[in-house]
Amino acid sequence: MGNFKEDIARCEAFVFDVDGVMTDGGIIPTADGDFIRRYNAKDGYALAYAIKMGYKVCIITGGRGRTLENRLRMLGIRHFYIDCMDKISALREYLANEGLDPQSVIYMGDDIPDLECMREVGIPVCPSDAAAEVIEASRYVSEFRGGEGAVRDIVEQVLRAHGDWARDSQGVTPSSLAASR
C-alpha cells in the first residue's frame, strides 16, 4: 500500500455495492415485489465508459429486483451478484475467476456489510455519507454522497490516472453499448 494516486494508476478493476453507493439508499417497494431506486446518470455514464475502455466492473449487493438487474445490464455490467448475503465469498470468487490481484482492486461500499470486502482489497473507498466504520476503513472518501456522484468521482480519477478519461473525445451512448454486445 503506497501513495493513493500511484495505487489507483495500477487499478485493474472496480467493485461496487449498489444501495447507498450507486443510489442514495432509498428504495420504494412495488406491489410485485420489485424495488424502485434512483440512480445518478453521471455515475452510470462513468461506469459504462470505463467498461467501454476495457476496465473490469463488478457489482456485489444485497439488493435485488428486476429493475436493478436491468439497470446493470443497461450499463454493460456483466459481472454482478445480487441478493448477495455473503459478499466476501462473492468477491473472492470474482477475483479468482478474473485472475485479479486484490491489491489492484477498488471496492466502494457504504455500510457494515461492505467492511469485510473493503479489508480484502488494496483500494477501499466510500461515499462521503458512508457509515463511520466504513469511512475509517477507507483509503479515500469521496466528497460526494452515495447516488450523487461518488461512483463517477472514483471512476474518473482512475481513468484520468491511466490517461483514459475522455481519450480522443470518445464517449459512450446506449446505442454504442448495444453495438458492443
From TrEMBL:
Q: Locate the residues binding substrate.
A: 19
Which cofactors does it use? Mg(2+)
Q: Which InterPro entries match?
A: CMP-NeuNAc_synthase, HAD-like_sf, HAD_sf, KdsC_fam
Q: Name one GO molecular function term.
A: N-acylneuraminate cytidylyltransferase activity
The residues the record assigns to binding Mg(2+) are 17, 110
Supply the Pfam families for this chain: Hydrolase_3 (PF08282)
- Entry keyword set: Hydrolase, Magnesium, Metal-binding
Relate the assembly described in the record. Answer: Homotetramer.
Q: What's the family? A: Belongs to the KdsC family.
Question: Under what name is this protein listed?
Answer: 3-deoxy-D-manno-octulosonate 8-phosphate phosphatase (KDO 8-P phosphatase)
Q: Which organism does this sequence originate in?
A: Alistipes timonensis JC136
